[in-house]
Amino acid sequence: LTGQTALITGASRGIGAATAVRLAECGAAVTLAARSTGEIETVAAGIRDAGGTADAVACDVTVYDQVAAAVGHCTTAHGGLHILVNNAGLIEPVSRLADSDPDEWARVADVNYKGVYHGLRAAIPVMLAAGGGTIVNISSGAATSALEGWSHYCSSKAAVLMLTRCADKEYGAEGIRVIGLSPGTVATG
User: Beta strands of the chain (E only): which ranges?
Assistant: First the structure.
């Protein structure tokens, strides 16, 4: 991946942090994005200490302008955007529908679903102009299996699955690979 640039959302821990480290080990310049820069700057510093290229940007994926700014940062700081990993996601709070808090339920949907849309919307024009790229959307087995108390998570990940299929259908022939990944249960935090 030498000469390529990757943007990873939700990169402060777990899958996002591990992905940033691995892509940097493969030669990519990585930009780690999360709502606050404390943890992602620590991960980025570790990548730089190991000889990689990494930086950190504050980005709330529920705010399109912040996602677009993170994509713009990649193009300015690293000369382009070749890989986007839409990883930011929430699962808490788990509750049955009748017991759920509407604002908290909507927050999960905003991060898990709208955040992926924002990433796609911001990255695709940049990738089209460059002749292609790769977008990995983190979905879940919960996208196709209903789990009690997880209506917000299951439905948002199902939306990510379909959004991935739509984006691939729309842009696959133009050199943009849009891939969904369902990694299974991960012990994060």
Answer: 5-9, 29-34, 53-58, 83-86, 133-138, 176-181
CA distance 97 to 94: 9
What is the reported pTM? Answer: 0.95
First and final C-alpha spacing in the chain? 29
Q: How confident is the model at residue 97 (pLDDT cuts 50, 70, 90)?
A: very high
Query: If 0-12 CB within 10 Å is exposed, 13-18 middle and 19+ buried, where does residue 134 land?
Result: middle
What does the chain come to in residues?
A: 189
Task: Please tell me what DSSP assigns to residue 175.
Answer: T
Task: Please give the Cα distance from 25 to 35 (Å, whole number).
Answer: 24
Q: Which residues are catalytic?
A: 153
What is d(CA 169, CA 165) in angstroms, rounded to the nearest whole number?
Answer: 6
Q: What per-residue confidence (pLDDT) applies to 167?
A: 98
Mean pLDDT of 141-147: 87
Answer yes or no: are the C-beta atoms of 124 and 48 closer than 8 Å: no
Residues 6+ apart with CB under 8 A from 137: 86, 116, 119, 120, 160, 163, 164, 178, 179, 180, 181
What SS3 class is residue 141?
Answer: helix
pLDDT digit string, tens, across residues 120-138: 999 999 999 999 999 999 9
